[in-house]
Amino acid sequence: MLVPYTTTVPPLTLTKFGYTSIPAVLTRYIPATEAVIDNTDELAFVADPDKFCSQVLAYLHPEARNLGSVTEVDYSTIPDCDMIMGGTSCQNFSYQGDKKGLEGVKSKLFYDFAKIIQFKQPKYVVWENVFGAYTHSDFQIVKEIFNEIGYEIDYGIFNSADFARRIQQRQ
Question: Would you name the residues annotated as active-site residues?
Answer without folding.
Answer: 90
